[in-house]
Amino acid sequence: MARLTFCPRCAERLIVRHEGGRDRQACPDSSCGFVHFGDFSIGCSGVVLRELDGEVRALLIQRGQAPYAGTWQLPGGYAEHDELLAAAVEREVREEAAVTARFRDVVGFRHMVVGPSTNVYIICRLDYVAGEPACDGVETAAAGFYSLAEMDAMDGVQGISKWGIRHALSTPPGSGLSVDENGSDNRWQMFGLADVDPAHWRA
């Protein structure tokens, strides 16, 4: 857990007190109420599938900057604190690969508790809309659509990216966690499983 010295809300010097089952840094001013529960981040990436030359291929970008410069991965990044997940992954795909795609569902996620912050990395399936892959020459060094066979012959394709692509290829579109349109607005979204074969539960 990161160590803070002063309260980010009111600038009082923080103390340590027992809160929520463990010792945590907290503001001594009861009218402020700040408690430091740790640092958290939400990452997202997009599996964008497209049929080219009779074969289904997935969009990958090659990292142009450290860490892991030169490796290949799904386009993605961090969701901003005021940005909905579906909008964040669509933005990242557009920024990193110059491809327009629309969120369909969540096919998997990784929860990691090592490093400077606890991170949830969410792998989404997106429908290709338009655009040809292009890199910016800074954050990304290359971009393109590749088959799994091609990826197996490439150096430095990240394992979690291939894991997400395989999940997207082996499950029907819409079978993952999809946005429930009845419970969403521009400030929050609910994600749930959709039964792609309602007859399954009638047997």
Give a quick set of tags describing it.
single chain; 203 residues; alpha+beta; Nucleoside Triphosphate Pyrophosphohydrolase; 2 domains; seven-stranded mixed sheet; two-stranded antiparallel sheet; 11 strands; 15% helix; 37% strand
Element order: H for helix, E for strand: EEEEEEHEEEHHEE
If classified by CATH, what would the architecture of the largest domain be?
A: Alpha-Beta Complex
Rounded average pLDDT? 92
- Profile the largest sheet: 7 strands, mixed
Task: Count every helix, treating DSSP H or I runs of 4 or more residues as helices.
Answer: 3
CATH superfamily of the largest domain: Nucleoside Triphosphate Pyrophosphohydrolase
Q: Helical percent range?
A: 10-25%
Instruction: Look at the helices and sheets and give the structural class.
Output: alpha+beta
Number of strands: 11
> Strand portion, in percent?
35-45%
State the CATH topology of the largest domain: Nucleoside Triphosphate Pyrophosphohydrolase
Low-pLDDT sequence parts: none
Overall number of structural domains:
2
CATH class of the largest domain: Alpha Beta
- Gyration radius (Cα, Å) is 20 Å
Gross morphology is globular
Q: What's the end-to-end separation, in Å?
A: 50 Å
